[in-house]
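tool_call: predict_structure(chain=1)
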Amino acid sequence: MFLKNRLNGHMIEIVNVEQLFSLYDSTVTGIDQVGEEAQDPEKYAKADLIFLSDEELPICWVNPEYRHLQPKTLIEQALNL
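tool_result:
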């Protein structure tokens, strides 16, 4: 799976997709797809990653307390308000 680093726009190949889906992992292992040489895997904060379409990751992948948030809070968090 590929995501985008919101800080620099680089495409990141996610090595361990289970980390991405886990509520309790705040980082994922990925490989930056910049340059011609293969890059070494690095840890990336989920908060710094978005889909290639510039959409945010689902809250249930990022926030382990998402079930306890009020519906309005979920919308505000999704819209970064």
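agent: DSSP finds three helices and five strands in the chain. Proceeding to next step.
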